[in-house]
Amino acid sequence: MAVAPPMTMQGGAAGLQHQQSVLPRSSYLGLQLASQSGVALPCVKFTSRSGSFNLRCQVSPSSTTLPHFNVDISGPGKPLQSVERTTIRLALPSKGRMAEDSLGLMKDCELSVRKLNPRQYIADISELKNVEVWFQRASDVVRKIKNGDVDMGIVGYDMLREYGEDSEDLIVVHDALQFGQCHLAIGIPNYGIFENVNSLSELAAMSLWTEDRPLRVVTGYTYLGKKFLEKHGFKHVQLSTADGALEAAPAMGTADCILDLVSSGTTLRENNLKEIDGGAVLSSQGVFVANKKALLERKEVLDVAHEMLERFEAHLTASGQFTVVANMRGDSADEVADKILNKTSYPGLQGPTVSPVYTKKGGKTEVAYYAIAICVPKSQLYHAVRQLRKAGGCGVLVSPLTYIFDEETPRYRQLLENLKA
């Protein structure tokens, strides 16, 4: 997919022959031009000793955004020189829940995405130098990472698989960003000829499907749908796409079933549709993905990916975890540690942290308590407090965790191994 529509450059100085050049996709213009369907934009005039030159641009009706161009104009008849990009580009979804969750994750990880104008499609991150953020449709996030127009991005795994088409140019840096959870699945009517069909194998075995009367599937995932149905023995299938809610297609008679994303399943049930056993194509959530060539050939891109990965991993590991601090009586730190390890189910990350608590008694400073600190999942918090009390703990303090930085990020080690493959 082209990054931008072709643009023409016309020489308008007196005494010069008319010349026209098409800017290559790899060029970048130092102006961000507004995209207006079919509207001719003003000329930009350049003057040199040999005369003046006009750069006239027009955006095609299908364009949505136009990237930067740097144009080297050295005189009539000279070829346009493309400038190699030195910035690092991060693509984020431009709208919808995925866009909100992506920005929320960035904010939670102390990565401030700054966009001066809400209508702009480009922003920056103050904590990451030389990084541009480009807001794109989810499908374009994948396409542009695949083509190398951007270096990395956040997108749903379903979109990565559909529009990435299993390309080796794409590499997943983090596969579980913990938002946008859903799954891609087949939904069929729960009435009529499908009333007693409850599995994918039963659907495939229906004698109704022939070359003249194929199973009609409406979906936005034609690449994944074709691979999935072929894999499971469907020989006569017609895949089609539709605008709007797909759930209405079976009731209207324009399709037999749908292949779409399912979260809770409520929308399917409200439209008299049902999931079937074996009909789930894949599970999906937000993923952090990058262009493999950019990671291999540009160290600065790998460095930024590493930093973002560490921030994501530390925050997501800490998500839902609480620090619990309590005072416990004991004659030594070893005795208190033994109580935690043998009388509770919560030893901490590598083990409990035990430190003396100094009190003043009779004019003397002595150790009467030991403070212990452990990490506990939120869902098990009250149970942990009860165990600590039973083991002799008191003065229990609880606070949420923001980050847990490990000695080394396991996913980064895996990324380096994948880059070698």
How would you sum up this structure, described in words?
One of its GO terms (biological process) is L-histidine biosynthetic process. Residues 137-305 form the ATP phosphoribosyltransferase catalytic domain. This protein has 421 residues and is of the alpha+beta class. It contains twelve helices and 20 strands. The relative contact order is 0.10. The two termini are 27 Å apart. It folds into four domains: 1-81, no CATH class; 88-180 and 286-317, Periplasmic binding protein-like II (D-Maltodextrin-Binding Protein, domain 2); 182-284, Periplasmic binding protein-like II (D-Maltodextrin-Binding Protein, domain 2, 3-Layer(aba) Sandwich); 321-400, Alpha-Beta Plaits (2-Layer Sandwich).
CATH class group of the largest domain = Alpha Beta
Number of domains: 4
Give Rg in angstroms. 30 Å
Largest sheet properties? 7 strands, mixed
Outline type: globular
Strand order of the largest sheet: 6-7-8-5-9-16-10
Count of distinct strands: 20
Structural class: alpha+beta
What is the assigned CATH homologous superfamily of the largest domain? Periplasmic binding protein-like II
CATH topology heading of the largest domain: D-Maltodextrin-Binding Protein, domain 2
Q: Strand share of the residues?
A: 25-35%
Helix content: 25-40%
Low-confidence stretches: 1-42, 46-50, 56-74
Mean pLDDT: 84
Query: First CA to last CA: what distance?
Result: 27 Å
What CATH architecture of the largest domain do you see? 3-Layer(aba) Sandwich
Q: Please count the helical segments.
A: 12
